[in-house]
Amino acid sequence: MERPDYPIAVTAAEAPPRTTPSIYPEPFASRMAGRDKRPLGDLFGLTHFGVNLTTLKPGAVSALRHAHSKQDEFLYILQGRPVLVTDAGETQLSPGMCTGARHGTGNGQQLFNRSDEDVVYLEIGDRTPGDTATYPDDDLQAAMAPDGKWQFSHKDGTPY
Predict the structure, then answer these.
(1) CATH of region 24-129, choose from 3.40.1050.10, 2.60.120.10, 1.20.120.160, 3.40.640.10
(2) How far apart are CA 159 and CA 52, in angstroms?
(3) Which of 10, 14, 50, 82 could form a disulfide with 119 if both were Cys (CB 3.0 to 4.6 A apart)?
């Protein structure tokens, strides 16, 4: 089996940013302004889980508040003081803190940078096929297609 060339190691902050700032359809994609994701796992050809080094500028959010049906997510705060927003309310985070979102709970979560400094964190999630995502605050739902790409629709099933 032929193996593509992958780096042995990289400086995470120097990894190339994701070429598409958001995969959400409009009007949601523009709400991701100020978010920079560097897909570290992809650089090494990882297929079972993804790792992103993400920076949120002041006022930016990590994603729309969402919950996965099959995929788990883990966040580790490296710099800054984001607010974690979940169904339970708001939790102030700081460097060295971490949080996890277990699949199947329906508990939507997102990070919000309400500070005057950048927030930097590692985002780790698995890539379980057949995942769906719900967005409790928005008229949006998503399903992962067999090719691994997300397909978005309104909550009534009408495609975007």
Answers:
(1) 2.60.120.10
(2) 28
(3) 82
Task: Name beta bridge partners: 49.
Answer: 126
What is the pTM (predicted TM-score) of this model? 0.93
pLDDT tens track for 11-59:
999 999 998 989 999 999 999 999 999 999 999 999 999 999 999 999 9
How far is 34 from 148, CA to CA, in rounded Å?
A: 26
Q: DSSP letters along 4-51, please?
A: ----S---GGGSPPPSSS--SPTTTGGGGTTEEEEEHHHHTT--SEEE
The two most distant CA atoms of the chain are separated, in Å, by: 49
